[in-house]
Amino acid sequence: RYAVQGMLIYRKAALIVVREMQKILEENLEKAEHEPVLFPVLIPEDILKKESEHIKGFETEVFWVTEAGKKVLDKKLALRPTSETPVYTMFSLWIRSHKDLPMKVHQSCAVYRYETKQTRPLIRGREFLWNEGHSAFKNLDDAEKNVEEIRKIYGDLLNDLCIPYRIHRRPEWDKFPGASYTLAYDTLIEGKILQIATIHNLSEKFSEAFNIKYEDEEGNHKFVRLTCYGPSFGRLLAFLLNIYKDESGLKFPAKFAPTQIVLVPIFAKGNKEDVLKYCREIKEKLVQFRVVLDESDKTPGEKFYYWEKRGAMLRIEAGPRDIENNEVVVVRRDTRKKEKIKKD
Fold first, then answer.
1. C-beta separation of 93 from 100 below 8 A
2. 262: nearest Cα among 331, 337, 161
3. d(Cα 243, Cα 164) in Å, to the nearest integer?
4. How far apart are CA 311 and CA 170, in angstroms?
5. Cα Rg of the chain (Å, integer)
6. Peptide bond before residue 36 is cis, with ω within 30 degrees of 0
7. For residue range 114-172, what is the model confidence (pLDDT) as tens digits?
8. What is d(CA 71, CA 63) in angstroms, rounded to the nearest whole number?
C-alpha cells in the first residue's frame, strides 16, 4: 500500500484498461470538436474561491500548498479538486465574439480531494483519474444540445464497457455546487449505487463570476452558457474488476482486457526452440492485439491458471503435434470453448 492513504499506484494491467477507456472517450470527444488541453495542477486561492457556492461545496476537501522549499507562499495554491475555476478564468480571455463559440475543451488528468470518509481503492480516494470537459455556448438551447451530445458519448463508452447504468437528475441538495442541474450516471456494485459519471448544466453564476461574455451579431454583450462533465476512470475500472469475473478469475470485455491473447507453448523434450519459433510466428501475425507469449518455465497447467486469473480473453496453445498439422488450439475465456484452427 502506498504511504498516503487514498492514493493508488496503477501498474501495467490496470493502466492498460484505463488508457483504453481514455483513448475511446477522447477520440469521441474530439470528433465532437472538443479541443484537448492540459491545465496546471495548482490553482491560486483567489481563483478557486471566485464562485462562492462552488467553493463552499469543496472547501473541506481541498489540499493546500503553502510552502515552496523553505519559503512560505504569499498566496495559497490548491491541488486541483476540479477545473471549472481555472478553465473559466481562461475562457474569459479566450472568448470575445460569437465567432469564438462554441468553445469546447477536455482533459484527462488526476484530481485531488481530501476525502474524510473511509477511503476505498478506486471508488473513494484522495487522488483519482478522470476526464473532464468544459464548454461555453451562446444560449441555453446550444448548452442543452451539448448535454444530449455528451449523454450519447458517455452512453457509447459505457455500452462498450458492458456497464449497465441509469441516468438520474440529482435533487437540489445533491447537485454540483453552482449548477442549474446535474445528471448522474449510476450503476450498482456489491448491491450499492455507484456514481460513475456526471453532466452539469451550469447556471450563469459561473459566467458572471468570471465575466465570460461575448459580443453577438448586433454588437450586444452577453454572458455565455456553460456546461461541464466527466467520468471517473477509477470507478469504471472498479466496476469491471468487481462484476466481470467468475471462480477462475477476471473476465474483461475483450476490447479492454490488459492481455487479449496469451500464447502458451507446449514443450516436449528437445523441441523447445521449434515450438517457440512457431509461437513467435503466430504472435507476429497478431500485432493489432495485446498479445503475451508466455516463455516461462511454468507447466502448461500453471500457465492456464495464471492467465485465466488475470483475464486473458483468448488462449492459443501450440505444441509439436500442432506444428506437424500447421494448427493451434484456441480456448475462449468467456465460453471456455476449445477448438483447433489452422495457423494460417
1. no
2. 331
3. 11
4. 36
5. 25
6. no
7. 987 778 899 999 999 999 999 999 999 999 999 999 999 999 999 999 999 999 999 99
8. 18
Phi, psi values for residue 94, rounded to 5°? -80, -25
Residue with cell 445533491: 174
Given a cut of 90, whether residue 205 has pLDDT beyond it is no
Query: What is the C-alpha to C-alpha distance for residues 327 and 9, in angstroms, rounded to an integer?
Result: 41
Q: HEC profile for the chain?
A: CCCCCCCCCCCHHHHHHHHHHHHHHHHHHHHCCCEECCCCCEEEHHHHCCCHHHHHHHHHHCCEEEEECCEEEEEEEEECCCCHHHHHHHHHHHCCEHHHCCEEEEEEEEEECCCCCCCECCCECCEEEEEEEEEEECCHHHHHHHHHHHHHHHHHHHHHCCCCCEEEECCHHHCCCCEEEEEEEEEEECCEEEEEEEEEEECCHHHHHCCCEEECCCCCEEECEEEEEEEEHHHHHHHHHHHCEECCEECCCHHHCCCCEEEEECCCCCCHHHHHHHHHHHHHCCCCCCEEECCCCCCHHHHHHHHHHCCCCEEEEECHHHHHCCEEEEEECCCCCEEEEECC
Per-residue b/e over 83-115, b at no fewer than 16 CB within 10 Å? bbbbbbbbbbeebeeeeebbbbbbbbbebbbeb
List Cβ neighbours of 142 (8 Å cut-off, separation of 6 or more): 101, 102, 225
The domain 250-342 is placed in CATH, from the list 3.30.530.20, 3.30.2130.10, 3.90.1150.10, 3.40.50.800, at 3.40.50.800
- All structural domains of the chain with their residue ranges: 12-243, 250-342
**Looking at domain 12-243, which CATH architecture does it have?**
2-Layer Sandwich (3.30)
Alpha carbon separation from 145 to 151, 195, 207, 221 (Å, rounded)? 10, 23, 19, 22
On average, the pLDDT of the chain sits at 94
